[in-house]
Amino acid sequence: MIEVQNLTVRYDEITALHGISMSIPEGRIVTIVGANGAGKSTTINAISGMVKRAEGRITFNGQPLDQSPQRIVRKGIVQVPEGRRIFPSISVKENLIMGAYTVRDKARQQENIERAYRLFPVLEQRKNQPGGTLSGGEQQMLAIARALMSNPKLLLLDEPSLGLAPKLSLEIFGLIQELHQQGLTILLVEQNAVKSLSISDYAYVLETGHVVAEGVGKDLATDPVVKRAYLGVAD
User: Fold this and answer.
1) 106-119 vs 136-148: helix crossing angle, rounded to 10
2) What is the pTM for the complete model shown?
3) Using CA atoms, how far apart are residues 183 and 177, in angstroms rounded to an integer?
4) CA distances from residue 111 to 9, 31, 62, 86, 105 in whole angstroms, order as listed
5) CA 170 → CA 104, 123, 133, 159, 173, distances in Å?
6) Among residues 112, 127, 151, which one ends one of the domains?
């Protein structure tokens, strides 16, 4: 589905990614883990078109991914950004409708809203409330539901459990697994490395903009060298 080849990204004089390569096959959960500043969010932002690459190539189903973020969304690649970034002053339902701007068919929009309510019953209960009145966990659910409104082929999740209580984090991971079981391809950037690796088909470990390890998620989660050096976990 997505192939990243020799991707380099620079912010002025600082090189955030040094020629990294990775693959996100259709129907898989792929995770990127690493310490703060490793380049995880930069990678996901480069795929979604939010940052420009200095060098390298990104393809989607064999075609170059060189368009604007809006056109990339229309291709079926949708990002849930770090920090949720919902619209706090409009209602939950209106937030969902904003996520469906690429869907012209009103009946399809309504179907997607009903699907969102099935996935997140609390959103139906809060549908007339301003998004800003929701709890942190509910706002994360709304951010994911809003992304699903455009029927994505690839969902990019940037730190979905950030700032959430452990119980809510587990709910978010459970939802990610449910979406995966429904056939959605997912690229996950996540601070909770051990948990994210445990649900991943494949994973990449970044350090200062370099891929320093890759492999089956569960294998990396139990590798003592990776645990000590990159995940902050003692043996």
Assistant:
1) 140
2) 0.90
3) 10
4) 39, 30, 31, 21, 10
5) 34, 18, 22, 13, 5
6) 151
Say yes or no: 31 and 17 in one domain: yes
Strands (E), the chain: 2-11, 14-24, 29-34, 55-60, 63-64, 77-80, 154-158, 185-189, 202-207, 210-215
Range of the domain at 95: 88-151
CATH number for 30: 3.40.50.300
Where does residue 83 fall: left (phi above 0), alpha (psi -120 to 50 degrees), or beta otherwise? left
pLDDT digits (tens, 9 = 90+) for 207-230: 899 999 999 988 888 887 677 656
Sheet holding 154-158, edge to edge: 77-80, 154-158, 185-189, 29-34, 202-207, 210-215
125, part of any domain: yes
Q: Output phi, psi for 221, to 5 deg.
A: -65, -25
**Could you report the per-residue pLDDT of 117-139, keeping only the tens digit for each?**
999 999 999 999 999 999 888 89
37 occurs within a structural domain: yes
Q: Are 139 and 86 in contact (CB under 8 A)?
A: yes
